[in-house]
Amino acid sequence: MRETAAVFKREFAAYFATPLAYVFIVIFLALAGAMTFFLGNFFARGQADLEPFFAWHPWLYLFLVPAVAMRLWAEERKTGTIELLLTLPVSLAGAVLGKYLAAWAFAGVALALTFPLWITVNALGAPDNGAILAGYAGSFVLAGAYLAIGASVSALTRNQVIAFVVACAVCFAFTVSGTPVVLNFFSGWAPILLVDTVASFSLLTHFQAITRGVIDLRDAVFLFSLIALCLYANVVIVEWKKGA
Amino acid sequence: MIEIDNLGKRFGAIQAVDGITLKVAKGEVLGFLGPNGAGKSTTMKMVAGYLAPSAGTARVCGFDVVENPIAVKRRLGYLPEGAPAYPDMTPRGFLKFCAELRGFTGADGAQRIARAAELTQLGAVMQQPIDTLSKGFKRRVGLAQALLHDPAVLILDEPTDGLDPNQKHDVRSLIRAMAAEKAIVISTHILEEVDAVCSRAVVIAGGRLVADGTPAEFEARSRHHNAVSIVLPAGAAAVAAAAIRAIAGVESVEQADLGDGAARLTAVPRKGRDIAAALRQAVADQGWDIAEFHIERGRLDEVFRAITQASPGARAGGAAGHA
Q: What are phi and psi of B24, to 5 degrees?
């Protein structure tokens, strides 16, 4: 636990040691705002809620979260520090968890900085703050799911650009797997079970339920299982890649 | 303190390390020699718990690296090849991170960091990003990290690579100063280092251990062990060479022109013969005008080449650069 905390601390500080953190936060806030007001028609809807804000998060995370995750392991392998880290007395699982939690906390900071929107809706009307809280929680867990995918992909390569592009592609697959475009491809010939399985992997579907303020246990179980599975894959990949 | 037991590592089709068995006791400084790709770094990585062995195991302070890697890592100071460190951190931040991972926080941690920084003379650069440091300082940051917890066992992969002569001297002094209390393994390409710091050396070629001995024993294997070289005017060299060749016990005489009218004659003895006295006598009898009289201890590079090129397991290339 102490080791995981030390890894977390170092990793979290590392985001702020370079301009990365500030660039990321500024762009995240700018895009989140732009999507809410222009694409989401925040004012024209005439409703005091944050649904247009949260609705765009999967698409925003799709390419911003892999940018946070890409350095997690690829950079360690590039600089050779992975050998140092893994010969310090920390278990591989502890190191994976510490790094992941640091990235997730960083994403949480960026998300928390969108609070002026929450103030705005409260000033404009009387929103359902419970639903907003659920939206924030759902968005945070969604970011965690994308991050877990990105972290595993980052462990596969020493090249951060490759890590970014591949993570974007995998995240995209998870995002759209419930949409008609994907499902129509399968539904003609594949058994219903397969179609349903593919559909159930859609992060978009699971997230949309949460943004409406409905936290379904099944959605939560899905997202957390996905995170756990990806982190397990992360451990396996790091272990496997060490020798190669 | 270190017991390596039939350790092996295979990368796909390449057998990088092939059954190395070795013990290092407290007070020993073991030099790990071998050509590039011989399996030195791979062996060290396995003992340090970074790579999992494909065969055999290693024990550090009685703890098995396969069964109990964390216990091994707690007792081991390891400097990986190239001394990697997080480039955006300062040495202070980096050492603080390593100290926290090892469970040293607060005053204890600060004291250990100060001590490690003092031993490796990092004082002036503690607040500079590691990225901006010279190669020598980077290496010393890595060394400081390995010394932080005052470990019983130190494994240093090329600790003096990239250092200038003064820094090399400092690092060697540091290793010698710690030697009595620890078991130390260093890998190196620099053969003079073996003489300077090691109490024992092993040569690895093709993933196998091909020689094990003290530096003096290695020197004794040299053709030039107890050879005598004299420097005299070039004009007298031919006559002198003929005279020396006639001395009993001399196998051959090598002649080298040193320029400025001087030449060096090296008399190589037959195996096990001592020819120094006979040569000294010859110099006195013939009245040669010699500028230098030198008894060689043996040439390590010659022994190294003979061992690594003759051994059946040795190959060109190999498993270099596995990270």
A: -125, 125
